[in-house]
Specification:
Elements lengths: L2 E5 L2 E3 L5 E8 L7 E7 L6 E6 L6 E3 L7 E6 L4 E6 L8 E8 L9 E4 L3 E5 L2
Length: 122
Amino acid sequence: QLQLVESGGGLVQPGGSLRLSCAASGFTLDYYAIGWFRQAPGKEREGVSCISSSGGSTNYADSVKGRFTISRDNAKNTVYLQMNSLKPEDTAVYYCAAGFIATMYPSDFGSWGQGTQVTVSS
């Protein structure tokens, strides 16, 4: 069974940084595109960033471009989301998901982690 586990969330002040990790177990990430999504209370889940299986193609939501960076280390079976210059509006539960196409649409991803809370507040 494909299993993804997110970590690295927490409470950070505006302008701060966090690095989220998405670790896979039970399968090799090499063949999968990975997406990062987030969901704030009362809002729909939205795509934040995605990366192709090779790592050669990435995409970002306009709201995070220039602040977030997605990367992957297939040797460690892990995908990262480096988040800099965090804003209060980045507060949400962040999820990673595995799929076959690197898109920003949750419906394109079949395996999901349990999520990690990111709170940006002073």
